[in-house]
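Hi R.,

Here's the chain you asked about this morning:
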Amino acid sequence: MGDLTESLPGLEAANGTSNGSILPNTTTNVAGAQGISADEIALLRTANILLIGIQALGNEVAKNLVLAGIGSLTVVDDQVVTEDDLGAQFFLTEQHVGMNRAQSALPQIQRLNNRVAIYADSTPILLQPPEFYAPFTLVIATNLPLAALSTINASCRLSGRPFYAAETYGFYGYVFADLISHTFVIEREKSNVSTVLKAETSTRIILSSTTKKENGKLIELVTKSEIYSPIILANTSPLPPYHLSSSRRKLQITPLLSCIRALWEYQTLTTNLYPSHSHADIALFTSLATEKHKELQLPTESLRADFLRSFLQNLGSEISPVCAFLGGQLAQDVINVVGGKEQPIQNFLLFDGEESKGPVYALHPIFPPLEEESEIGPGIGAAVGGTMLTSTNGAGTLSL
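And the predicted structure, written out as tokens:
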């Protein structure tokens, strides 16, 4: 792909150019430290990523992707810098207050790696037509309500572009992935058990298996394919049957899922981004959370009053360690997806900083029965950013 400023009018490039002076070792050194192969580095260098929103979480995503050495990063944000932005962001200073966020962050992002082309766009993202997303390899949207996310997700699907959504709420947060249909390769030491080409879950199938010798060991390369659902469908989808098969498993489902769905419903019903501390708003949110919890077929006792209170108190705040963790997980997943390696997030990662837990649930509208599904069980996993993402019949857990 050529210079994005030619195909997307309105973009502002750092230093007035699409490429700064080249730092030849920056990308290689950082990528090597992250365990990225030479083939993945080559793919990363051709990746053009669109990042919507450059608040604290967006800062972390931008930092990790630029240091990894992607081809270009386009940052879209139509908001101006406020004093509140200075608390958890590291690309902005007091001199930027009142200026556009994306344009203000541009020079500092460029300083991380002059090999990467950095662009800023202050046009409101919802004013962009669907074809706006076509030039990009992948799209990431942060800190937006469900209606905006659904619109962007639909536009990405029209162009066949993978889509991520993410947001933090103080100690809590989420990452959602809609990769449409994604093929990837997992490398593992060859075992005595032959790999069978079959469906592993209702969304994942094993396509092929080959071997190679590496450092005296026989390595198996397993190619798999995953299908995904858009966020508008995932938001109304049930939990996988595995989680609803016993009372114990139902109690283990985090109430954060119900609270995020309730927040999105609240944003749809009102003109507010977050509930206020008024009795009416708190009552409305509590009612919505209870309703969403019941829709998920979860026991009422797992939606505790203290959790609801904590979630509401955290809304609107940004905590640097939480943003760093979620931003790192998201960036690592993007790197894996671009490189076609490792199991990606499928499809809803929830993070509870109070409990230091990050469960992943596969939320899809239909779960067709699979033969011998009970034989799959725990153990389908992939390393993600130094942690383990373990899938168990449609869900997983990030071990922190």
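The CA atoms of residues 172 and 352 lie 5 Å apart.

Let me know if you need anything else.
M.
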